[in-house]
Amino acid sequence: MVYSFLRPLFFALDPEHAHHLSINALKLLQTSQRRPTPAFSHQRLAQDLWGLRFPNPVGLAAGYDKNAVVPLVWSTLGFGFAELGTITAQAQPGNPKPRIFRLAQDRALINRLGFNNDGARAIAQRLPSLLSPQSSRPIPLGFNIGKSKITPLSDAVADYLESCKKLLPFTDYLVVNVSSPNTPALRKLQEAERLGRLLEALLASMRQFAETEHTSSKPLLVKIAPDLDTAAIEEIAQLALSVGVSGLIATNTTVERSGLRAGSPETGGLSGHPLATRARAVLRTAYRAVEGRLPIIGVGGIFSAEEAYERICAGASLVQIYTGLIYEGPFLAQRIVRGLVRIVEREGLPHLRDVVGRDV
Ligand SMILES: Cc1cc2nc3c(=O)[nH]c(=O)nc-3n(C[C@H](O)[C@H](O)[C@H](O)COP(=O)(O)O)c2cc1C
After folding, report:
1. CA pair distance 7, 208, nearest whole angstrom
2. Which among 75, 179, 180, 317 is annotated as catalytic?
3. Residues 67-81 pLDDT 10s
4. CA 76 to chain CA centroid, nearest Å
5. Does domain 2-355 have CATH number 3.20.20.70?
6. 61 and which of 36, 107, 203, 322 could share a cystine (Cβ 3.0–4.6 Å)?
7. Cα–Cα distance, 326 to 171 (Å, whole number)
8. Taking the model in full, what pTM does it have?
9. How many CB atoms lie under 10 A from the CB of residue 194?
10. Is 32 known to be catalytic?
């Protein structure tokens, strides 16, 4: 309600400027809190996955808090988990501005930010003063890592390993981003041979870390593009199962432009409403390919509890949102969670997890 008055003000600003303002507001909120707000939990929505407790299934998608500066506000806004980053080994400024565009008629965004971030080392140095110990976090926090732009594809493994080593002590789960359209050639890392090498190296490094810490290895997830064909999705799914990845995230932004009401000449990744159909289809294909043996996080064009529920029925154990926040406001996660509770009660479901993949 309040956001419907504020949105025109935000939309009068350049999208990246509006984003920085929102991050500054969230920083104020974070410093004003003596301790993180307890999670917005519901017994029919909460679930344990990968040894982590997810109080509800609605998460923040990667890209909003790229530098992990407000990791503790997301539970206050009702999220059940949050993914921070993408973070690269090298600090980098990203692409020239302007690089985020609103397509208001389509309830969509195009971005070509290009992994602007402070780099894994600087971010890891800041984290101890920001983050409470893992055991007392109200919601799981994942870190999403990508390849530095200056690193050639042939050295990608070492680049990802560096970010992994820096961030692993702080993360509850790690995401390999091989699907952003805004780092040249990054999506080639989705090819089975390259991806296999990358995942095996990361998993080995994560196992080594776990041994030295006398803990179990943390979950590793792969985030995939919506622009893959069925064969490529199936190949990644098989690879994920065979190397021992913990889950998939479907999907990142698309380079497709079909279905837009208003065309856009801008290059970059398209997110929001026009992505929903494709993201749902990729999720279904991936769910079928892993035969329900790996949890999948569904993301792309989720603006409502109905769409989140549909995504869960299409195979998602958890969902994430980004563009919906821009159009619907900061309390969208809470609204989706409340809506999911209503749907579960209406359908007489003992638990939301009972419908994961029901429609596949
Ligand atoms: C401005 C912007 C920046 C993004 N940055 C990242 C990123 O750094 N890493 C990543 O994995 N995904 C990134 N994404 C993709 C989102 O995490 C998500 O996969 C995608 O936007 C689809 O979800 P949505 O339709 O709810 O936005 C970004 C999306 C937007 C709109």
Report:
1. 47
2. 180
3. 999 999 999 999 999
4. 18
5. yes
6. 322
7. 26
8. 0.97
9. 16
10. no
